[in-house]
Specification:
The complex is a heterodimer of chains A (438) and B (310). Chain A has 438 residues and is of the alpha/beta class. Chain A has helices at 121-130, 143-146, 171-178, 180-192, 208-217, 238-246, 266-278, 308-314, 357-360, 371-375, 382-390, 394-399, 410-414, 421-437; strands spanning 25-26, 33-36, 46-47, 54-55, 60-63, 72-73, 78-87, 93-101, 157-162, 198-204, 224-229, 261-265, 284-290, 298-303, 324-327, 334-336, 349-353. In chain A, strand 7 (78-87) and strand 8 form a beta hairpin. Chain B is an all-alpha fold and 310 residues long. Chain B has one domain (19-297): Ammonium transporter fold (Orthogonal Bundle). Chain B is built from 14 helices and no strands. Chain B has helices spanning 19-41, 43-66, 77-87, 95-110, 123-134, 136-139, 152-157, 164-169, 181-193, 200-216, 223-231, 235-242, 253-273, 280-297. The longest helix of chain B has 24 residues, at 43-66. Chain B starts with 18 loop residues before the first helix and ends in a 13-residue tail after the last helix. Classes of the chains: A alpha/beta (438), B mainly alpha (310). Chains A and B meet through strand 15, strand 16, helix 9, helix 13 and helix 14 of A and helix 1 of B.
Chain lengths: 438, 310
């Protein structure tokens, strides 16, 4: 049988052994919690609390600021200290609600809900929307919008993205090992929204134990199947996982729904479970704290808003001086210059490395070797695109399909001349996409 | 933890492969052919190889020094050019042929067009053709201690019998590095295993050439004739080491197939209908010139726009 996969991609050192065998540990934040109002794609949330207000864990502190937006909930009890711009992982200053933690962790009561099987489509979507759930794999797109396409009966597949192809990350893996029922139940609820859809749990085959567990758990579920995909980065990219799991292909002008698919990642589906089964809003997520600079790399269940310094402390601090700290994985994460930033809904990992490949390696001339062409999952010619971008040649950039790039980083990774191909293409895409919006 | 951390755009990790590691692999892969050349033709061959390599490396160094550019001789690309050029020279050539060829290859073909990655023609082949036109008698004199007379390919063209076994092993007259099919294929296998080259271009080149000469060679499907053509002249060296030169071959997958076929056909035309027995160098050079056009018509389709399958 041919393996389920896509063309291109790479096999970087995966570093997962650092954290994969240790159980998830809960972190109780000690210091202030910071809730950026923009931790999703779309309009920033609007604060509904004021300085000096006392809030409880699970209390809504900001409501959706538009249709494409998401509410935000406090994750500890305490007092609103200020509403002011704070630095986030991207380096931007974002208006944030700062809550002084009183250390009591008092929670609001959650509404008693009827069993999900008896809920209507609208009720389920309303729950997910109210819970402030956004794509927790990194994109941060409000999940309720994904789940309400124009024609729900035309959705054929609901894909649970369990690939976790980013090196070093093991949060989805631990979740599948420790709480697979939540994932399966969350997927079942999602399937309730789409009468004709089948559920696919798409796992990379470097996690055979997860495949086994999920298969066992779903053996009586006629609508759900488990698919083992070839281990290769970026298998978990939306377009690639749809193609690998269903054979359907979409480009940048299409949504997964155009190919009859809805894709959500593991943590997002578990958040759906919490929202619909337990009535709880999105308050925490799993973060992998890892890298060769960290004393005790492992996964933590973290309350959103927790400062990154506290995560490092929980992981035993640094055993070696880190040179580079990345929020997210090494392929698509953000390099951060300061640890004083909060955990957001989309923060999947905190990776601390004692060596920085990028500044260590001097870029040199392109030798046209074609490794980037072989690696590009979007089937582009990155070396040409990067040159067009560097020369600001818009026409050639667009005609060579520069907008189809998914910024996965494969081209820069393989380049023997160590050119920053992804960076050049990414910058040009940003300009072109902004122009298109106007 | 002190001060601010380093930041950069994603990705934050890079592969270990570098330009110099690739070039070094090519140098290593050329050693069997060079070694056999020295064994076959004696110390003259060794001297010529050393002079040519020294000439290419020095030319690059001096040019970059004079122009105040970053010194790039450490990437081994000049060594590859020098070695390839030397393997394309007859062992009987005087040392200054290697020196002049080396200067021409690096200065005229490579550096004047912008250095590594910018040349539109393989520097070693450009220099070989320059020498062939300028110093024809020296470049086509294959008399030496070990062998006298014509190359097997010339014999083949004039209708004489050739010893195929000797041609495959390399015990024939010819340039230093081209005679031994076995040594060249050993080096090529190393490059394929290292992931430096693949079989797209050499495969298409060799197959299309074999098809061409069996149709137009006048011998039909005569295996001995086809094998003699494949083992003779610079075909193997050209197909595995010069047609696969990254800088001067198409970067697109389909372009590489097309390029290989084009070289096979051109080599066939030159060998069968041209004045000289040899045709590989000119075929590759003409192929090099067509690369931008080939790339233009073979651009891949993007994922989701028909390019998702192969």
């Amino acid at each position: 049988m041919s393996k389920l996969t896509f063309q291109g991609g790479i096999h970087p050192y995966d570093g997962k052994e650092l954290s994969k065998d240790k159980p998830i540990k809960a972190v109780l934040p000690k210091g202030d919690l910071v809730y950026p109002l923009s931790q999703h794609i779309g309009a920033p949330a609007k604060p509904i609390v004021q300085k000096g207000d006392r809030v409880l864990a699970g209390q809504k502190i900001a409501e959706a600021g538009g249709f494409v937006s998401a509410p935000i909930y406090a994750t500890v009890s305490g007092t609103v200290k200020s509403i002011e711009p704070r630095r986030v992982v991207t380096g931007d200053n974002v208006m944030s609600i700062v809550v002084e933690n009183d250390g009591l962790y008092e929670e609001v009561g959650y509404p008693r809900l009827k069993p999900p099987e008896q809920m209507s489509r609208e009720e389920i979507i309303e729950r997910i929307k109210e819970a402030g759930i956004v794509g927790m794999g990194g994109a941060g797109f409000p999940t309720f919008i994904k789940l309400s396409p124009k024609e729900p009966e035309k959705i054929d597949y609901v894909i649970a993205n369990c690939a976790e192809c980013e090196p070093y990350l093991t949060s989805d893996y631990r979740r599948m090992i420790e709480e697979p029922e939540k994932l399966v139940k969350g997927l079942k609820v999602s399937l309730q929204l789409f009468p004709n859809a089948r559920g696919i749990l798409a796992v990379e085959d470097n996690k055979p134990d997860c495949v086994e567990i999920l298969k066992k758990l779903t053996k009586d579920e006629t609508r759900i199947s488990v698919k083992a995909l070839k281990t290769k980065y970026p298998q978990g990219a939306e377009r690639q996982i749809i193609y690998a799991a269903t054979g359907r292909a979409i480009n940048s002008t299409m949504l997964p729904a155009d190919a009859g698919c809805v894709v959500n990642n593991v943590d997002t589906i578990v958040a759906i479970y919490h929202a619909v089964y337990e009535g709880k809003p999105l308050m925490n997520r799993i973060v992998t704290v890892t890298g060769d600079a960290v004393a005790d790399p492992r996964n933590f269940i973290v309350r959103i808003g927790t400062n990154y310094h506290e995560l490092i402390e929980e992981a035993g601090g640094f055993k070696e001086e880190p040179v580079k700290i990345i929020s997210g994985g090494p392929m698509m994460g953000f390099g951060i210059f300061d640890l004083d930033v909060p955990t957001t809904k989309t923060a999947s990992a905190l990776l601390c490395l004692t060596q920085d490949d990028v500044s260590r390696m001097e870029p040199s001339a392109c030798i046209n070797c074609g490794r980037c062409v072989e690696a590009c999952p979007s089937r582009l010619v990155p070396s040409m695109l990067a040159t067009y971008a560097e020369h600001y040649d818009e026409e050639e950039f667009l005609s060579h399909e520069g907008l189809e790039c998914v910024e996965c980083g494969c081209c820069s990774f393989v380049c023997p001349a160590k050119r920053s191909l992804t960076q050049s293409i990414k910058s040009m895409r940003k300009i072109q996409l902004a122009k298109k919006k106007k | 933890m002190s001060g601010l951390m380093k930041v950069s755009s994603n990705p934050h990790v890079r592969s270990k492969t570098t330009t110099s590691s690739i070039m070094l692999a090519v140098v290593i892969a050329l050693l069997p052919a060079a070694g056999f050349g020295i064994y076959n033709f004696g110390l003259d061959a060794l001297v010529l190889i050393l002079v040519t390599v020294a000439s290419t490396v020095l030319t690059e160094f001096v040019f970059e020094k004079i122009c105040g550019k970053r010194i790039t001789v450490g990437d081994y690309s000049a060594v590859v050019t020098g070695l390839l050029l030397a393997l394309n020279l007859p062992a009987s050539a005087p040392w200054w042929i290697g020196a002049v060829g080396g200067v021409f290859a690096i200065l005229v073909v490579k550096m004047l067009f912008g250095g590594l990655g910018q040349n539109f023609m393989n520097p070693a082949l450009g220099a070989r053709c320059f020498l062939l036109i300028s110093f024809t008698s020296i470049m086509t004199n294959f008399d030496c201690d070990a062998y006298t007379g014509a190359t097997p390919l010339a014999d083949l063209k004039s209708g004489m019998d050739v010893d195929i076994l000797n041609m495959v092993i390399g015990r024939t007259a010819g340039t230093i590095g081209e005679t031994s099919m076995v040594a060249i294929v050993i080096g090529a296998c190393f490059l394929i295993l290292m992931g430096v080259i693949d079989l797209r271009i050499p495969g298409c080149y060799i197959v299309s050439f074999a098809v061409f000469i069996s149709i137009f060679g006048g011998h039909g499907l005569d295996w001995a004739y086809i094998c003699a053509h494949l083992a003779g002249g610079g075909l193997m060296l050209g197909a595995f080491f010069m047609a696969t030169d990254y800088v001067t071959r198409p970067i697109t997958k389909n372009g590489q197939y097309l390029f290989g076929i084009l070289l096979g056909v051109l080599t066939g035309i030159f060998r069968l209908f041209g004045p000289s027995a040899e045709g590989v160098s000119y075929a590759i050079i003409i192929g090099n010139l067509l690369v931008p056009l080939i790339e233009k018509i073979t651009l891949p389709k993007a994922f989701g726009k028909g390019g998702e399958k192969v």
